[in-house]
Amino acid sequence: MASPPRGLPISFIVLTLFTFLPNPATSLRTSFIKLPGSDGSRSSSAADTYCESWRLAAETNNAGTWDVIPSVCVDSVAGYLNGDQYGSDYGVIADYALAFAETVQVSGDGKDVWIFDIDETLLTNLDYYRAHGYGSEPFESNSFNEWVVGGTAPAFEASLRLYNALKKLGFTIVLLTGRDEHQRSVTETNLRDAGYSGWERLLLRGPEDQGKSATNYKSEQRSKLIEKGFKIRGNTGDQWSDLLGFAVADRSFKVPNPMYYIP
Amino acid sequence: MASPPRGLPISFIVLTLFTFLPNPATSLRTSFIKLPGSDGSRSSSAADTYCESWRLAAETNNAGTWDVIPSVCVDSVAGYLNGDQYGSDYGVIADYALAFAETVQVSGDGKDVWIFDIDETLLTNLDYYRAHGYGSEPFESNSFNEWVVGGTAPAFEASLRLYNALKKLGFTIVLLTGRDEHQRSVTETNLRDAGYSGWERLLLRGPEDQGKSATNYKSEQRSKLIEKGFKIRGNTGDQWSDLLGFAVADRSFKVPNPMYYIP
């Protein structure tokens, strides 16, 4: 491994899948790092280890598409979400995002955009998911829409901090969400109640966006911004489909979400 | 948040940076998730929490380019690498990779390629890094090259298992490494001693590749494979620069490496 020069914009393609397979036997000619629980047993501690590995695989998009969290991991995911680690993970990512933002030469013409997703990015729906198995139950749109209409989702502290700091730096804030256009009013009210203000645009799924994958819908919306002369400097979302596709930001920040996956 | 249809290849651009900033004060109108240690104090437990967050930020490429691991995280990273979690994380990713590989229609003409990086992907240099502060010391090419020439790096169990399973499925294995061409012989011997065999090509940096970023060098090599009619189905590496850029694989798998970052 030589030490190469630094720094490059990069792109990445992934496909999707979720399965967990047993370990086939292997024959080795030398020592190797052993996996825990490779004899098939899974103690409580081994389950914790596995669930940490699953969460890392999900966050890095190694897991690809998945429908519900592994049933063995409900306690582990709940512990993560209800403990300090979840908020800490958000805070560290917000710090990296802000450090990057401070290096951007903001032109002052209002064309330097930072995009935020809403659900699990600006607002937390943890109270809803806490009552629905932390992502272990299949997504149920009726009850989730009821929750959205309730309009009581709180802000993430780290996201609000980042949001306000970006405004102060002169970025134009665009909110790009998979929520439907008919949820515009309740979404605006919820955002304001949670402490957010001063966004330039709130982009929701219109009738023409129905049936599109989140990756396509959001890429198209970013593309339209670029056509209008905006420069998408940064993008923050909890889903890879918020960040990937085409017309991507100069830099993208993936905040954690071990509860659901939207392709 | 509506529930969109599933499944899409996606691409992703990131830039790079590493800084850790203090939390500016924020004023809120409602409740939010609190970060631990936001008063500036950092107990041993808070340091652990931070270091877990740093590791996640590094693995997800949120941290961008970084030179050495945070000094406060040496114990945490050492604990991760020497404990069960590191091997478990590899194993789970290998399982996802294999599950994906089993869905690929391998044509039988030898054109379906799976690419592996070598260092920290097929072979572990943990013994070297254990003696050099687990990534807390700046990279020192002389001593690392001595280690490489020694040729004693063991295999990761999970990588060897994946490697052999992919061969059995009929994939053509290509090894693509940042090691220099003059290290070909010692690298081949080390790989064979560690249990690997039957690769189709071993691609190392030639004189014309010196000075190129890893992302560019590896993208160019993948591009040449595609020009020769190969289809790059999968790619496994410990660095984002193994996986991103252009001519990327149908699906890429990022194995963990909290010790160093190569752009």
From TrEMBL, chains A, B:
A single MF term (Gene Ontology): nutrient reservoir activity
Keyword field: Glycoprotein, Signal, Storage protein
Keyword Secreted on entry: no
Signal sequence residues: 1-27
Coiled coil segments of this chain: none
InterPro entries attached to this UniProt entry: Acid_phosphat_B-like, Acid_phosphatase_pln, APS1/VSP, HAD-like_sf, HAD_sf
Family to which this protein belongs: Belongs to the APS1/VSP family.
Role of this protein: May function as somatic storage protein during early seedling development.
Name of this protein: Acid phosphatase
Lineage: Eukaryota, Viridiplantae, Streptophyta, Embryophyta, Tracheophyta
